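Q: My labmate handed me this sequence with no annotations at all. I'd like to see what the chain might look like in three dimensions before we decide whether it's worth expressing. Could you predict it?
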Amino acid sequence: MPVVPVEAADALARLDAFSAVIDARSESEYALDRIPGALNWPSLDDAERKLVGTEYKQVSPFAARKRGAAIVARNVAMHIERHILDLPKDWSPLVYCWRGGQRSGALATVLGQIGFRVHLLEGGYREYRRAVVAALDALPARFELRVVGGPTGAGKSRLLHALARRGAQMLDLEALAEHRGSVLGLVPGSAQPSQQQFDTRLWDALRRLDPGRPVFVESESRKIGDLRVPEALIGRMRTAPCVWLELGLELRVELLLADYDFFVTDTEAFCARLDALRVLRGNDMVNAWQETARAGQTAQVVRELLTTHYDPVYLQSMRRNFAAMTRPIVRLEWDGSAAALDAAAAKAVAAPVQPADDAPGSVFDAESRYTE
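A: Here is what I predict for the chain of 372 residues:
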């Protein structure tokens, strides 16, 4: 059966219609980013690519192509034996490599000759990447966002998931970025995805949302850790109606100690992360925090971090970047319990798009409660 070429935009539009998505690139290319749900069936793995590339430069392109053809043939045969023998005739995959060239073409041709209806991504991953970037520029305008704000430790991410449990739509950017959005936000021993993979995850999340219903999202900055949030989404967020979530200071300390328990159990990792604040807060203050943490008083350090660093910085950022936060459509307070969080979620879902005439004033009117 002939191989069917498909353009990137068309492939993205009907991605769920393919029986499988097969990435014929090497394992390192796949790890950097891939189409959502793609399986990695390398025509050449990393070591084999290096071998063929060296022969191309040091011997000749013809010799390298012969070597590459032999390796690709063995790998394609291996993939067929491992993955194909039990598949039905109506199995119809999308296959791609870096540019839609020889690596994916060889695999697609053999699968087509077997009798499968195979789609080959024109331009490969490179065109897919361009299509994702274009989609991330266009998609945010389709959605009515509700931005969740509130001081650090108020439970904004928890509220997002409580909203989801109530059937509301939400976009958890910190989960997609694998970072909690602050100096302390990266979990020790973990790594963020590449920018390309973050963009893919974000596009995949956005494409599954219903434009006819509001989407709740946390009040993130332009960067989450080392990753950039697309400008079109940031722009949309900063003009959206806002929800403000509040939790008492001591309860915020408790929540943060629970969420960042790895810093409680690994004091030196906590102290190492505090070093990042030396430029902003000075050596004396950071040294004092580190000494207090090493004395077993992590809760006191967290409390001081909130009152002297995070709360003032966050409120300044909200005032500068989220104009609607001055008069949110609803102000939510909870006591740290699951029942109170669920009640707050219900109130957020029911909130009108515009603040009521008798709604409380600016959240910044009570700024002293965060900076005392």
